[in-house]
């Protein structure tokens, strides 16, 4: 029969960490006035974190009086407290942590290559801090897609953006969304948004990328339209123009006709004026819209 005494071992290692006894590694974390030093043991760091194993095996930490010393300024004191206790004790408690700390913790896990925590932290963030994610939706996109290992958060973001696009499009920082992300959303056949509304959003996004454009479109020059056209040239082909009503075509599309190809605009005009006109550029299938999902509010 095997008896599990791991909790005792874990407690003893935490005591060793807290006592600072026989330490041979000083880690300085955070920046400026928030800096704090942690006293650790290289043998434990090396076997528990592939990041520290790499640091030690490649001589990346300076050594003074037989003590390894290194700075990690991009991890906060609060986050490192959690991770160093995990490295020593094998346990982690996120119950009292704010969402922003958990996001920073996830990024720090990636830096320290604590791969076994990636999925756990992502799952915890999604389950317990959904409202915060919605309120910081663009930020979550930027962070999650920066790291290939954050697949759960990436999939959650993409699914939510398609099923509840209002969360993205109504965000105060929507226009700071990178073009790659906007392209990905517009390409998705599961995006629950009406095409006339999507047009409004991409026009708003395109204008925001070019702050020099006049506020009032009646004051625009041909060059102004060309600037907007250049910004949106990859996105415009993803709009299902033939699903936009005649009224919206008149009031929303026609004012920006200069950013469409002449062939497309002429065909759209005939589509709305000539009965039974067969569209020439209607190659996109309709989106698989679930309006019950898209109507969900935050």
TrEMBL record:
<feature type="domain" description="BTB">
    <location>
        <begin position="23"/>
        <end position="96"/>
    </location>
</feature>
<dbReference type="Pfam" id="PF00651">
    <property type="entry name" value="BTB"/>
</dbReference>
<protein>
    <recommendedName>
        <fullName>BTB domain-containing protein</fullName>
    </recommendedName>
</protein>
<dbReference type="InterPro" id="IPR000210">
    <property type="entry name" value="BTB/POZ_dom"/>
</dbReference>
<dbReference type="InterPro" id="IPR011333">
    <property type="entry name" value="SKP1/BTB/POZ_sf"/>
</dbReference>
<dbReference type="InterPro" id="IPR051481">
    <property type="entry name" value="BTB-POZ/Galectin-3-binding"/>
</dbReference>
């Amino acid at each position: 029969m095997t008896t599990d005494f791991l909790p005792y071992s874990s407690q003893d290692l935490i005591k060793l960490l807290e006592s600072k006894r026989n330490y041979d590694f000083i880690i300085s974390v955070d920046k400026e006035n928030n800096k704090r030093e942690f006293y650790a043991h290289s043998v434990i760091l090396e076997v528990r974190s592939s990041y520290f194993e790499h640091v030690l095996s490649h001589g990346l930490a300076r050594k003074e009086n037989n003590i390894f010393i290194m700075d990690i300024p991009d991890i906060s004191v609060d986050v490192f407290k959690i991770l160093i206790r995990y490295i020593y004790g094998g346990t982690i408690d996120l119950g009292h942590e704010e969402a922003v700390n958990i996001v920073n913790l996830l990024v720090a896990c990636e830096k320290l290559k604590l791969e076994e925590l990636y999925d756990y932290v992502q799952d915890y963030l999604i389950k317990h801090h959904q409202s915060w994610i919605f309120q910081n939706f663009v930020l979550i996109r930027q962070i999650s897609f920066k790291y290939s290992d954050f697949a759960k958060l990436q999939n959650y973001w993409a699914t939510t953006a398609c099923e509840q696009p209002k969360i993205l499009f109504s965000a105060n920082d929507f226009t700071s969304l990178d073009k790659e992300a906007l392209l990905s959303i517009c390409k998705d056949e599961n995006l629950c948004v009406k095409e006339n509304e999507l047009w409004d959003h991409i026009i708003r996004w395109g204008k925001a990328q070019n702050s020099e454009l006049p506020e009032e479109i009646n004051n625009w020059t041909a060059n102004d339209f060309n600037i907007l056209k250049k910004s949106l040239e990859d996105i415009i082909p993803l709009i299902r123009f033939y699903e936009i009503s005649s009224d919206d075509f008149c009031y929303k599309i026609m004012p920006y006709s200069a950013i469409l190809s002449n062939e497309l605009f002429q065909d759209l005009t005939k589509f709305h004026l000539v009965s039974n006109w067969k569209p020439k550029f209607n190659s996109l299938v309709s989106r698989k819209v679930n309006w019950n999902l898209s109507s969900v509010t935050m």
